[in-house]
Amino acid sequence: MTRSALLVLADGRFPAGGHAHSGGAEAAVKAGRIKDADDLEAFCRGRLHTTGLTSAGLAAAAAYGLDPYELDAAADARTPSPALRAAARRLGRQLMRAARATWPSPGLDALAAAFPRGAHQPVVLGTTARAAGLGPEDAAHCVAYETVGGPATAAVRLLGLDPYRATAVLARLAPEMDHVAERATAAAREGVEALPAASAPLLDLTAEQHAAWPVRLFAS
Questions:
Q1: Which H or E element spans position 174?
Q2: Measured on CA atoms in the order 19, 25, 31, 34, is the torsion positive or negative?
Q3: pTM of the model
Q4: What do you get for the CA distance between the two ends of the chain, in Å?
Q5: Going residue by residue through the chain (220 aa), what tens digit of pLDDT does each one get?
Q6: Residue 188 Cα to chain centre, angstroms
């Protein structure tokens, strides 16, 4: 295991396509639910403890080497929004391309062959972490960070928010990210049936509305 590999995988410059997605922040900004750094912190905290926890559990389970078919089905069941399911598979395809170029492995090849249209992104991320020599908790930490990092970056672009204040939001949430990663890893250790299924219905509803916008800055 190498911590440098974790930094590469979690780096926002890793070409996995996440920069094109706001994690629901664009719809929240338009609806007036994110207007400043305090709103952003509340939004990110809610996302972290719901969809973030769920996705982190899936990634940790994939890093443990659990059945990817079961995990992808579990991800589908935990993603009621068709728009978010489609986005997760697009992100999974993009991450798979980057991962296979960076850490070639039989596990990634097998997952790509099993899901030619893309597996859910957390499942691909966990498999990538395994290929990179990282552990389940590393995979969960990656997901926890991207769960809040994506909306924070998007808010800077959408609102012209001071990037220093956006970064401060991430720093304040760091202990909670650690806690979510630990919870997700512990659940994944118990198997697919024990994985978190925390939901965020408002994110599901606004994702469907956002997908129908004729003009938008972010894909989701």
A1: helix 163-189
A2: negative
A3: 0.95
A4: 33
A5: 578 999 999 998 899 998 899 999 999 999 999 999 999 999 999 999 999 999 999 999 999 999 999 999 999 999 999 999 999 999 999 999 999 999 999 999 999 999 999 999 999 999 999 999 999 999 999 999 999 999 999 999 999 999 999 999 999 999 999 999 999 999 999 999 999 999 999 999 999 999 999 999 999 9
A6: 16
